[in-house]
Amino acid sequence: MARNPDADNAPVKKEIESPTSKYDAEKAASFKVVGSRPARPDGMDKVTGKARFGADMVMPGQLVGLILRSPHPHAVIKSIDSSEAEALSGVKAVITRDDFTPNDDHADVLYNIMAREKALYEGHAVAAVAATSRAVARKALKLIKVDYDILPHVTDVDEAMSPDAPVLHDNIITRGVSPTPTKPSNVVARSEFGHGDIEAGFAQADEIIERSFKTAATHQGYIEPHACVANVGTDGMSELWCCTQGHFHVRQVCASLLGIDVSRLRVTASEIGGGFGGKTTVFIEPVALALSRKAGRPVKIAMTRDEVFKASGPTASSSMDVKIGVTKDGRITAGYGVFRYQGGAFAGAPADFGAMSAFACYALDNVKTEAYDVVTNRPKGAAYRAPGAPMSVYAVESVVDELAARIGMDPIDLRLKNAAKEGSKSSYGPKFGSCGLVETLEAAKAHPHYSAPLGPNQGRGVASGFWFNFGGETCSNLNINADGTVTIAVGTPDIGGSRASMCIMAAEELGISYDKVRAIVADTSALGYNDTTEGSRVTFSSGMAVIKASQQAVTEMCKRAAMMWDIPAEAVTWEDGYAKPSGPNAGDFEPLSLAEIAATAGKTGGPIAGHHEYNADGAGVSFGTHIVDTEVDPETGKVDIIRYTVVQDAGKAIHPDYVEGQFQGGAAQGIGWALNEEYIYGDDGKLQNAGFLDYRMPVASDLPMIDTVIVEVPNPGHPYGVRGVGETGIVPPLAAIANGVSAAAGVRMTELPMSPPRVLKAIDDAKVAAE
Amino acid sequence: MVQVTLSGTIQQAAGGISTLEIEAKNIRQLLNALEKLCPALKPELEKGGIAVAINGTIYRDDWFQPIPEDSEVFLIPRLAGG
Amino acid sequence: MSGIHVSTKINGDAVEYVCDVEETLLDVLRDKLGMTGSKEGCASGDCGACSVTVDGRLTCSCLMLGAEAQGREIGTIEGVAKGTELHPVQQKILDNAALQCGVCTPGFVVAAKALLEKNPDPTETEIRYWLAGNLCRCTGYDKIIRAVMDAAAEMRGN
């Protein structure tokens, strides 16, 4: 939170606007459009192939941009000679680190998009070319001579933390430890959370289990590789088309890296082919802009899948220790966890979020978590759906499951007995407001899945999970058109159907049908700053902005009706899409519809519109509980998912289809993380499986139908009760599946992914140990 | 007075202090007071990596959010999402 | 590098183009013919986002050279709807909200249509295995499978 200390005594807001808006229970009782399942506005274009994604844009005279990447995981770049490439016919620009000036605000981002002193991971960008064809550009890359001085590398988090590990950055001095270290290391920061006295807590326990866990790095796996087209005009006015979760953020960072005014860069968000957090930052966009500026022509860069794996942001791998104590009757007396995450070549592994969410499902008197953010010679990680939480929750929920078995208690009952609820102190500090963990646990327990019989070699797992959710800077415009239709502009790219939800909320507020409302994602010149589509914030924040903008338009329409009737504006109310006199005293007038008011707007004061700009607070936390049946083949170690049920609190499902879709998608990604997905590094520090054949994401034949139960415990901080739903769904699956597989295999699985060789080895090791 | 609990990296940066009492009517006053009380915190606060929770509601950026008397306030890492 | 002249049929229309030897059919469709409905997700035949039919057979257009289209009949996503009239697979995907980001959707439409032309009454398992060459990262496949089952039922007249 940067701020200016001079205005220390600035006025305090008169009214407490916390949370930003209040839940309107009366309205929620009579929703007409909210909760329905209409077709999405962009659906037709997407099923016919007409929707334009990042790589689908063509600008006149456009060049092909390609990036030269380091083949070494760690090397000093002594020199780069691009003279031969520049001389090649058809090459219009070559750029290297020398084409970017140092940038204090975004130093790591700059270093990541174009290597400076060192190449820090295999795939780190070293130079880029723009040429008239892909063939010429490829040839040019081969002509660039880079002189490397190869250094020792480290890719494993535990190895990177050891005192004799190769150090990536000489300016990383561990924060959060006392005394401050004198020497640089790969440990960026140590964070600590918790309360109470864990030693006293463990002393009260009848059973204590302590285990260590590891999880592999996984990639968000969006099907659309990063792609953009940049065009820097002769006068410096620039446009950028790209697939991103946050085009305002892209504009801010690119303008800064290129040293241009924000007003001179217009960014348009294309349709986006998945993001899951991986498209919340920039990789190729500043490079394309720099190439375009040098070449004087538009430049398109589209990553290959190999580049996506090697040079965009996967999530962290982890190494974790968890210790939990419980009484015989199932009260958790203390929880302690240490979470070591490596997040690639730069600071920012989400270890702190992991530590904060690890025990969030439990109301504990004694809890302590420690987090270590560690750098290694891997691509800089990016956010991935509830960043940091799936791993830490996997560790905690595995131990909780084992404790339940140890004391002979049903695992859902154990969770219910200790569940966080409204008013309980969260494991990361603040008290929880209204939340729905207990409701999801009860719904899971009552679900037929939970009591269905299991077959041989099958095991059932259950786990809960949590994500914070947040709001952020948001604005939206809403225009009432002369024909009685409505157009909404939002600044948050739509990945999972949010335009449909925006239309639903405007239709609800205005009292008109869904078909009359259309929403677009506006470019950066059309709206004020909007935070990125992340943090499960869009339906909550942009939705609330749309509701407020609708209310503003309603106020104006009531005013116009009052003018027509020559009565005070306060004597007009809005009901089901009509302005009406508020009572007998207001007079007897025929109600005026939105369309009628819109038709004469030009004569009653001009266009009617609403807009809202704010910083959204009051995003409600979200909890979920998953049940999974797994079957383990004892001969091969292969795991099949037999049945899967997601129960999650959505606050209020605006468009239930897309809420279910978030639940199902999160579960499927979690299944991949649990069973197959893994960044595999060789001793040479190079990624060995940078393709979909060897980085095995779930395909249709791997999965069963994924049942969903939408629990609705309204968020008091949203007029319709909305909570974010996008991220929580990926938190419980790792643990739920590990618990299921452990039950089926008869041995506790402590390392992800539970790929066939690992499961087989665990079974064999257990057999040997038993003998 | 409000009771402020520090967590994450800033606890150590403040010299191992986890809770302190501060006179502040809004978030900006709180952060400025904290900085005066623990100058070592200045770089941490300036990095922009902090969010403030007041009575359970988390604020990422809201200088003038009032802090009612006797509030429970936590400084936690600024949240991000995927 | 000399270009290769190709005469082919795409979605029933005669099309001629000149392509380089190493250009894939997907490159030709997207970069030469402006048919960007087929997507490049991997360029290695693993994701199915570039699915087309070649003489009626489901094919990853990233695994076939543009030159190999000579004399063939190519079907792409652009030819699936007839004007504004959607194919039942497209309609059911819309009705079932069986898409989120939608980048894989064209490939699923082409692949599912090819399945139903071959097997009008597939089981859920048959659908899952047929579509195993198409990756979707958003939906967990649940709604896509339901959409294809619905489309099959409708096409059978149920």
Automatic annotation (TrEMBL), chain B:
InterPro entries: Beta-grasp_dom_sf, Mopterin_synth/thiamin_S_b, ThiS/MoaD-like. Signal peptide: none annotated. It comes from the Bacteria. It holds the Pfam family ThiS. This is Thiamine biosynthesis protein ThiS.
TrEMBL record, chain C:
The keyword Membrane does not apply. Keywords: 2Fe-2S, Iron, Iron-sulfur, Metal-binding, Oxidoreductase. Gene3D superfamilies: 3.10.20.30, [2Fe-2S]-binding domain. This is Ferredoxin. It holds the Pfam family Fer2_2. GO terms for molecular function: 2 iron, 2 sulfur cluster binding; metal ion binding; oxidoreductase activity. The lineage of its organism: Bacteria, Pseudomonadati, Pseudomonadota, Alphaproteobacteria, Rhodospirillales. Residues 4-80 form the 2Fe-2S ferredoxin-type domain. PROSITE patterns: 2FE2S_FER_1, 2FE2S_FER_2.
